[in-house]
Amino acid sequence: MAMAALKIGAPEDYMQLLKEHADIVNLPRIGTDENIAFPAVQANIAPAVALKDALGIYNPPHLMLVYS
After folding, report:
1. What is the mean pLDDT of residues 10-21?
2. Is-above-0.85 flag for pTM?
3. 62, 66, 67, 68: CA torsion to nearest 10
């Protein structure tokens, strides 16, 4: 999705520079072979807990009213 947006909004000469750079540095193509700009992924791994438990001692009192 990010590459589709970049192709729509970025100038063609900028896209050409990104492609040349990706080829020169052997940039890993994450997700799709067309990905020349975003060489990383993010994995959020956390156990499932209730919001009030996740906030712990930093939970402001007004949030307790909303989630209790």
Report:
1. 94
2. no
3. 80
